[in-house]
Design a protein that fits this description.
mainly beta, 7-stranded antiparallel sheet, 2 helices, 46% strand
């Protein structure tokens, strides 16, 4: 197994054709009188991962895998992402899916397809839509934001 995203397993022969990672940092720009603005680091940006995978009927059912991915995206589920080595990469949501059917059988069954998944790091609680900016019991809102 190369990786798992929620319940979807990416076997070695279905490993991404490309796997990009974008790590960013955010800065506020403050204007000053008669001079260049000053920058202040305000935090780290969420990580973006882009995977291009090729699904072939000899290793999986491409339609079943894509249905699971589309359902997770439509349900706005934050999914655990782990590599086959056991390295946990965090939780991610699927923000975009692009599919290209490459081959079909005589009845129209998908035999091979390529899909590009755009994943964004999810920071927050288990429930949908809460996020880290929600105060925990007995804590101030500021305390939960700055941890």
């Amino acid at each position: 197994m190369w990786a798992t995203l929620g319940d979807v397993r990416f076997e070695l022969l279905r490993a991404p054709e490309s796997a990009d990672l974008a790590i960013g940092h955010t800065y506020a720009e403050h204007a000053v009188i008669e001079g260049k603005p000053k920058l202040q680091w305000t935090g780290d940006a969420l990580r973006d991962r882009n995977w291009t995978v090729r699904l072939h009927h000899s290793f999986c059912d491409p339609d079943t895998v894509m249905t699971a991915l589309r359902t997770a995206a439509a349900n706005h589920q934050a999914l655990p992402l782990s590599l086959g080595t056991g390295t946990y990469l965090g939780r991610y949501v699927i923000v975009d899916i692009s599919e290209q059917t490459l081959f079909t059988g005589p009845t129209g069954r998908t035999l091979e397809l390529a899909a590009t998944l755009k994943l964004k790091e999810w920071i927050g609680g288990e429930s949908q839509g809460g996020g880290e900016a929600v105060a925990q019991a007995g804590q101030s809102l500021i305390g939960s934001v700055w941890r």
